[in-house]
Amino acid sequence: MTKSNLFYQNYDLLFQSKDYTREVNQILNIYRRKNQKTPRRVLDLGCGTGNHTRELAKIVPHVTGLDIDPLMVKLAKIKLQPFAKRASIINLPIEKLPLKFKFDLTVALFNVINYISTWPELVSFFRGVKTHLTSQGIFLFDAWNGVAALTDPPRAKSWVVKTKLKTIICHLTASSDLWEQKTSLTYDLEVRTNGKRKQDKYLLLQTLWTPFEIRSALNFAGLKLLFCSPLGQPQKRATAKDWKIFFGCQR
Ligand SMILES: C[S@@+](CC[C@H](N)C(=O)[O-])C[C@H]1O[C@@H](n2cnc3c(N)ncnc32)[C@H](O)[C@@H]1O
Questions:
Q1: SS3 at position 17
Q2: Ligand 1 pocket residues where CB is under 6 Å
Q3: Which positions fall inside the Methyltransferase domain (predicted)?
Q4: Residue 111 alpha carbon to ligand 1 centre in Å
């Protein structure tokens, strides 16, 4: 991954079509259906700029946002300032998080596990999740479905975001490698503000885990799979054609 200031500064605008409120409601409903209560402590693992963390902090008593990227953490800390009593943001990998308490619910949303490049690292990440989960706790995450994404790889797309202050033009290109199970995404950004123009690139390498690899890693880490659904449709079972899959697990 290469750093790009423009990507970080404009992350929330670039992904403004994501409905974080709806996603958090869905997640909390899954937890409530299983445990008949709202979770007290939630871990937002791979919190990025803190959009799920903020929505969670509006509802649950304690939220921790964790991310390995210091630039994301910086943005999340600013966003979560109004929720300082309920939320904390930490720049550590889950494996190094001190065990002060356990979480009732851990989420890793918007392809966090696809940033992990090797299977042993994926197992280690899941072990970290398990260590920090209460006995009734659940772990919810989403990921690319490697089977679908390698058969029908991500394609180039462009989009424009306009605000009163600036226009952002993003050209996304993707190149996928079947044998390495990787897709390399390049965000070519141009930001126009008051007649000035800035350009930057952000490169992101994602591992296209197959559902079998994910399930085996969960097993190895001692987590049990509860369900596996197409993203945004928790009542359905995922198929080989669904690009994004939503997983639910417990200890
Ligand atoms: C696409 S962003 C999603 C951010 C946020 N969850 C959202 O939905 O906007 C993925 C995030 O996962 C973080 N990440 C990747 N690998 C991680 C790891 N092993 N532990 C913690 N965070 C990780 C990245 O730094 C990045 O901020």
A1: coil
A2: 45-48, 51-52, 66-69, 72, 93-94, 109-112, 115-116, 125
A3: 42-137
A4: 7
Pocket test for ligand 1, best of 7, 52, 67, 231 (most atoms within 8 A of CB): 67
- Domain range for residue 172? 148-207
Quick one: which atom of ligand 1 is closest to the CA of 116?
Answer: 16
b/e map of 214-234 (b: 16 or more CB within 10 Å)?
Answer: bbebbeebebeeeebbbbeeb
Q: Are residues 81 and 130 in the same domain?
A: yes
The count of domains in the chain is 2
**10-residue block means of pLDDT along the chain (251 residues)?**
82 97 96 96 98 98 98 98 97 95 97 98 98 97 96 94 96 96 97 93 97 98 96 89 96 92
Ligand 1, residues 24, 68, 204: which to mutate, most atoms within 8 A of Cβ?
A: 68
Sheet holding 87-90, edge to edge: 87-90, 62-66, 41-45, 103-108, 133-144, 244-250, 224-230
Indicate whether 221 belongs to any domain.
yes
Which residue, 95, 121, 102, is CA-closest to 214? Answer: 121
Give the domain CATH number at 130.
3.40.50.150
